[in-house]
Amino acid sequence: MCGFIISGMIFGCRTPKVIVTKNWQEPPPIDVDCDKTDSLTSDIAEQFPEFPGGSDSFTKTIKANIQYPDNAKKLRLEGTIGVTFIVEKDGSVCHVKTVGNIFDNGCALEAMRVIKSLPKFIPGKQKGKPVRVRMVVPVKFKLD
Question: pLDDT, tens digit, for every residue of 53-67?
């Protein structure tokens, strides 16, 4: 059985054993349906985007959809993937990519796939108007 951590919540975890892949190459960002006309993106907003149903619903959605890649499971790879993305003015998720030092063997692509598949967020707001907001989510892959 495998597990993961999202925003500090642990699922199915035991003593961690982390193996880092040395020749890792960052996968390309997933940019389907991005708003190419508006380049202004905030890292800070008066009201941050909210996932429908709140953080518990966000965690449940990730947990229900993430699949530990077979190759990473065979190699017993574990670690954290930082995934950054933009929540558009309409709440859609775009420009999904990984950040920081991570391990690979399919885990980065799986984390990006799941984030890209999320339903629309309630958009962030600045001065009462919807704005594009950059978000970062840590996704930790762990094996039991």
Answer: 999 999 899 989 999
